[in-house]
Every structure is written in structure tokens, then in C-alpha cells.
């Protein structure tokens, strides 16, 4: 959940750098400058695709936790594949000159966040002792908020 909160807010900090990367990539690819409308559309897509991935992740999270590897722990462990793939794609996007990797990576990390937000509270509720169940249950919200705060602090100039 920390990762979900962080990804919600961290995208604001590198706006100028990502838009410059899109400009360079577009110019190299098409030998022309990108229009302001196209740049805004691409940037908006990169930012908002995380939410669409999250919607998909939350939608499938409950079902996966019942059937995927027969348990919630297996679902959470296999969910890391979305995170690792997203990190690889977003990390390589500049090297290979494909801003599309940012879009795909943000979508995948959104799926990861959605599944995590859906399955993690169920898993914590099942494994925690009764005396600590409330505290651990609220941990999801706390770490989501701390993740948002961390992403915003990293963006301070």
C-alpha cells in the first residue's frame, strides 16, 4: 500500500523531465516537434492509466485471492510480477526511446496496486492475532497515506 500511495503522488515531480523525454523521442521518431495537444494527451494518459490499472486490479483481486495459488499469500507473492515488470519497462523507457513503456508500466503498477489494496487487508485479517487485528487492518490506510506523503516530499524543490 505504501507503493500504491507513492505511485499516486510521485508522478507530479518529474513532469517537465518526462515531457522533455516525450518531446525528444517524438522528434527522433518523426523528425517533427510534437504538438502541445498531443503532448498533453500523452502526459494525461501516462498519469491516468495508473488508475485504470488499479480499477482492473481491484476488480480481479478478490477472485485471484480465491483461486490463484489457492491462497491470498500466493496472490500477493505473484502480484510482485506486475511490479517487477513495470519497473523494468519504466526503467528501460529512456534507454530504448519508447515513452510507450511508461504507459504500459504505469498500467501494470496500477494493476499491482489494485490487487494489493484488495487482497492485503484480507490477508492481514486472516493471519493477525485477534488482539492486533484492528491495528493491522488500519495499517493499509496508514501506509497508503505515508506513501502519498513520501511521493510529495520527494517532489519538493
UniProtKB/TrEMBL annotation:
One of its GO terms (cellular component) is membrane. Pfam families: Sugar_tr. It is a multi-pass membrane protein. PROSITE patterns: MFS, SUGAR_TRANSPORT_2. Keywords: Membrane, Transmembrane, Transmembrane helix. InterPro entries: GLUT (IPR045263), MFS_dom (IPR020846), MFS_sugar_transport-like (IPR005828), MFS_trans_sf (IPR036259), Sugar_transporter_CS (IPR005829). The chain crosses the membrane at residues 41-64, 76-92, 98-119, 131-154. GO terms for molecular function: transmembrane transporter activity. Residues 1-157 form the Major facilitator superfamily (MFS) profile domain. It is found in: Membrane. Gene3D superfamilies: MFS general substrate transporter like domains (1.20.1250.20). Coiled coil: none annotated. PANTHER family: MAJOR FACILITATOR SUPERFAMILY (MFS) PROFILE DOMAIN-CONTAINING PROTEIN (PTHR23503:SF1), SOLUTE CARRIER FAMILY 2 (PTHR23503). This is Major facilitator superfamily (MFS) profile domain-containing protein. It comes from Oryzias latipes (Japanese rice fish).
Amino acid at each position: 500500500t505504501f507503493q500504491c500511495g507513492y505511485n499516486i503522488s510521485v508522478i507530479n515531480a518529474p513532469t517537465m523531465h518526462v515531457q522533455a523525454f516525450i518531446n525528444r523521442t517524438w522528434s527522433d521518431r518523426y523528425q517533427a516537434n510534437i504538438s502541445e495537444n498531443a503532448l498533453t494527451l500523452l502526459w494525461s494518459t501516462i498519469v491516468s492509466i495508473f488508475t485504470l490499472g488499479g480499477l482492473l486490479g481491484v476488480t480481479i483481486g478478490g477472485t485471484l485471492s480465491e483461486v490463484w495459488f489457492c491462497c491470498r499469500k500466493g496472490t500477493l507473492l505473484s502480484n510482485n510480477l506486475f511490479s517487477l515488470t513495470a519497473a523494468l519497462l519504466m526503467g528501460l523507457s529512456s534507454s530504448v526511446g519508447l515513452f510507450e513503456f511508461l504507459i504500459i508500466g504505469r498500467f501494470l503498477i496500477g494493476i499491482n496496486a489494485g490487487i494489493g489494496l484488495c487482497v492485503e487487508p484480507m490477508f492481514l485479517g486472516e493471519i493477525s492475532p485477534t488482539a492486533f487485528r484492528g491495528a493491522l487492518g488500519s495499517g493499509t490506510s496508514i501506509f497508503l497515506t505515508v506513501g502519498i506523503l513520501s511521493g510529495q516530499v520527494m517532489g519538493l524543490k
